[in-house]
Write a structure and sequence with these properties.
Blueprint: H1 4-27, H2 37-65, H3 72-96, H4 100-123, H5 126-129, H6 132-147, H7 149-160, H8 166-198, H9 209-221, H10 234-265, H11 271-294, H12 297-305, H13 307-332, H14 340-366, H15 374-382, H16 384-398
Length: 410
């Protein structure tokens, strides 16, 4: 029998390490540190995205769609092979950056993710294959595979054009776009729809047809938001704007359709889970509105010139929308025991650090003063993140998980 709560703890462990690395990066602006900043950034981002979010999502997907004994050996082989690749990246990126061994481990991770996508799509029980929730999960996994074209392209670009080429950055943005806006979002939507299906709260699929078309069209076209910094032909601005508008329309449709289901669902989940999902919904709205603004040439160039805006957006999506939704779903699945005080420590650290990052970008843009102890304060506030995640991890290790939302199915 697989103890998936332990797999959740492993994911939280990666999140804790990524958060510690994030605080360490803040210290570079406070004092002299004998380390390579860029190398640590690589480790921080890889462990955050591939350790915490990827492992968290795949653990949830296995929990919901597979029984403990369904293809257990195959899943475990893929899971532990993935851990080897993640630990390899953790112990090579901070010291070498993109070099032989870190490239080997990151390449092996891509291969592991292909096996995971194949496993879920091919081995899922027949009863789930026609559900709307699994339709989202399957699409998210295809987007996961599509996103990997970015890392594969980086090697070729570096070998031929070098890392100063615009194609180097575009390859990175391609990867990040289909991770953040497709794989993560669609997987979380699929898990949400799963909970609705199991409580017979799911809207009719015909009601979601336009949502599905708008969302996927928006995902594809909004990739062009990632290339506007090169000031391309006007057609790319038009496509980027269309993609952002389609995503905005998609989520307007989503909230309209699920409103009746939400009224029933919120009476069946814990108050903390309700809070997490409401916060996540608010952050989702902020995200799609920011995307729409970034389609305008002025704001696109602004984001390129002042990288704090991009960092703030990425952190806001990762630490806010993605992670908070994951907390809610892991708890609803009985894999996480989260307390309200610990969540508030996390949320304060997230919210205040976001405010400080966006203030710095705005300050540089508008010539506003940056107070003397800004970076010390940013370090202190950012420290709340590893503190809260560490407390979540310890609580989850020593406390028995609560009753799952779907006790009879899970």
């Amino acid at each position: 029998m697989i103890n998936l709560k332990k797999h959740t703890n492993i994911a939280l462990g990666y999140f804790f390490l990524a958060a510690l690395l994030g605080v360490f990066l803040r210290f570079f602006f406070v004092t002299s540190i004998p380390a390579n900043f860029r190398y640590v950034v690589h480790a921080h981002s890889h462990i955050a995205l591939l350790g915490w979010v990827y492992i968290g999502l795949t653990t949830l997907i296995y929990k919901l769609y597979f029984s403990d004994e369904a293809h257990r050996k195959t899943y475990l082989k893929i899971f532990w092979f993935t851990q080897v690749t993640l630990l390899g990246m953790l112990f090579t990126f901070p010291f070498t950056g993109y070099a032989l061994f870190s490239i080997i481990f990151s390449t092996l991770f891509l291969i592991a993710s292909y096996f995971m996508a194949w496993f879920v799509i091919k081995k899922v029980p027949q009863k789930f294959k026609e559900t709307y929730s699994f339709k989202c999960i399957k699409a998210s996994l295809w987007y996961l595979v599509l996103s990997s074209l970015g890392p594969w392209a980086i090697g070729g670009v570096m070998a031929t054009l070098g890392n100063t080429s615009i194609w180097y950055k575009i390859s990175i943005y391609f990867y990040l776009h289909f991770q953040y806006n497709a794989w993560f979002i669609l997987a979380l939507l699929g898990i949400f729809f799963y909970f609705l299906e199991k409580r017979d709260l799911m809207p009719q699929s015909r009601q979601l047809k336009s949502f599905w078309f708008l969302l996927n069209s928006g995902i594809i076209l909004s990739f062009f938001l990632s290339v506007l910094w090169v000031e391309p032909h006007w057609i790319f601005y038009a496509l980027a704007a269309l993609g952002a508008i389609l995503q905005l329309m998609a989520f307007y449709e989503f909230f309209s359709v699920i409103q009746p289901a939400w009224r029933s669902l919120r009476s069946q989940i814990l108050p903390l889970e309700q809070l997490l999902l409401k916060v996540a919904a608010t952050l989702l709205i902020i995200k799609v509105v920011m995307q729409l603004f970034s389609a305008h040439p002025y704001f696109a160039q602004l984001a390129y010139n002042y990288t704090d805006f991009v960092i703030g957006y990425l952190h806001g999506t990762f630490l806010g929308l993605i992670s908070i939704t994951l907390f809610a779903f892991l708890q609803m699945a009985g894999l996480l025991k989260l307390s309200k005080p610990v969540f508030w420590i996390y949320f304060v650290g997230f919210l205040v650090s976001e405010g400080l990052i966006f203030y710095k970008g705005t300050g540089i843009w508008l010539g506003l003063p940056l107070w003397e102890n800004y970076f010390v304060i940013l370090v202190a506030v950012s420290s709340l993140l590893p503190l809260s995640v560490g407390l979540m991890l310890l609580r989850n290790i020593f406390k028995k998980a609560g009753t799952p939302f779907l006790k009879e199915e899970l």
